[in-house]
Amino acid sequence: MPVSERQLTAFADTHAWRIPFDTTPRHLAGPGDARHVTHGLAAAGWTRTSDPLSPEIVLRSPDHRYTLQFDPQSATSAWWRLRAEPTGTEPGWHAEFGALVPAELIGQLTDNLLGSVPTAQPDVLQVLHAANWETDEQGTAHSPDGMCRLELRHLGRHEAPSRCIETRERGHGGHDGPLIWRAYLDGRTPTHLVNAFVTALADGAPLQRGIHDPTAHHSVVQQPSPLTPQEVVAAHTARLRAIRAQARAARRRQRLTTTAAATAASNPRPAARR
């Protein structure tokens, strides 16, 4: 399901009048444009399986393993739900993201579904410590402003701990103020996807938002961005082109692997003579 010219024009029309402002920190920037996620998956070949006239969006990957649900009418705090079905060699897993999680962070995770899995992965706490987050031996990390926290949650003796990330208002006794947003990645979520989300979260680079965006937290810092609205749209379009190329390359590798396996199966080596 490629992104149509009409959809790209609608995205451009939305941002044409919105002068971008560099907004930090990321965890307080607000959700931004959900099309950062949905356009990216469409460019990768995901298809919509939900009612086109419904506010709920359900996208499914070409191999039918992954499903993303976006439900702005959800009765729970999770508007985004990403699920992976188990395969013969990999377990299933799921992740959930609240309404005010920046779409750029979710998009960084979903973009990494396309690429190859890195052979070496740093520990998620190492990623956060390098970004000046405060970490401890219990697997907890706090952002420099103390409003965003990552913690490990052990649900069973034989299960890997899940990661829960919460952004809260400042409370009287620490991280106990009203919830702003929550993200949950279960213990079977691949490490490189967890790292992709966390790296994007802790990145000090600003996100682009409109001035006085009502979904951004009142304590965010905003500065006029050097980017023009046209450059914001051009960057979005260039990202979609890169995703399409990456998805085509991945499908090509898969076809070659499948063909090679089928050829090997149909032409077994003759038994060695004694």
TrEMBL record:
Residues 256-274 have a biased composition (Low complexity). Residues 252-274 are annotated as: Disordered. Residues 61-115, 142-206 form the DUF317 domain. It holds the Pfam family SPDY. This is DUF317 domain-containing protein. It comes from Streptomyces poonensis. The lineage of its organism: Bacteria, Bacillati, Actinomycetota, Actinomycetes, Kitasatosporales.
